Amino acid sequence: MDVKIDLTNTIIQTDRLTLRPLAHEDLDDFYAYASEPGVGERAGWKHHESIEESAKILQMLIDEKSELALFHKADQKMIGTLGMHPSWAKDAEEYRSYKMTEIGYVLSKEYWGQGLMPEAVKAAVHYCFTELNLDAVACGHFVENNQSRRVIEKCGFQFVRVGKYTAKQLQREYDDMQYILFRETDA
């Protein structure tokens, strides 16, 4: 069963990142990476075409209380987000009894390939198991998104199945690789 998670007062520290609630002050940094073609499309949304569009989406994310900003300590800026949302697993009979969430993430292209996302995901998974007392965390990626696949595998998730994901903004259906990680496998 999915658990509704409110991340309003959540702060998670890693060596290089602070995961914290989104704020209006993040708008310029948010727009900088969300307007870059290819960033949002890997997560199922169209890149932002204006700062006004980013402002509306940022406000929506703040209101939903289920996203954390990835704040890069060295550069003193917000470089991505990590959210906890309803999971694909809620519809699978074998997972219905587990308290769980699904982690999704996006990172500025400028920071790809530096190991930041596995660092953030591992910290978020640890938080889910130790602070939220969840039984499992789900994750997924579009079949062609090998960077996300590598993050998921580095974090210890186990592949479960290929599902379908309809990205309404992109008017496209994707093959969605779906993974799960149970609490007892958390390091």
SSE diagram, text form:
Layout: E1 12-13, E2 17-21, H1 27-34, H2 51-64, E3 67-72, E4 77-85, E5 100-107, H3 116-130, E6 136-142, H4 146-154, E7 158-167, E8 172-182
Parallel strand pairs: 5-6
Antiparallel strand pairs: 1-2, 2-3, 3-4, 4-5, 6-8, 7-8
Helix pairs in contact: 1-2
Identify the strand order in the major beta sheet.
1-2-3-4-5-6-8-7
> Structural class given helices, strands, pairing?
alpha+beta
The fold-level CATH name of the domain at 12-134 is Aminopeptidase
Query: Helix share of residues?
Result: 10-25%
CATH architecture of the domain at 12-134: 3-Layer(aba) Sandwich
Notable features of this structure?
Aminopeptidase, 4 helices, about 25% helix
Could you characterize what this model shows?
This protein is globular. The protein is built from four helices and eight strands; from the N terminus they run E-E-H-H-E-E-E-H-E-H-E-E. Strand 1 and strand 2 (17-21) form a beta hairpin. The protein has a domain at 12-134: Aminopeptidase (3-Layer(aba) Sandwich), CATH 3.40.630. The chain is of the alpha+beta class and 187 residues long. Strands 1-2-3-4-5-6-8-7 form an eight-stranded mixed sheet, with helices on both faces. The model has no long low-confidence stretch (mean pLDDT 91). The two termini are 23 Å apart.
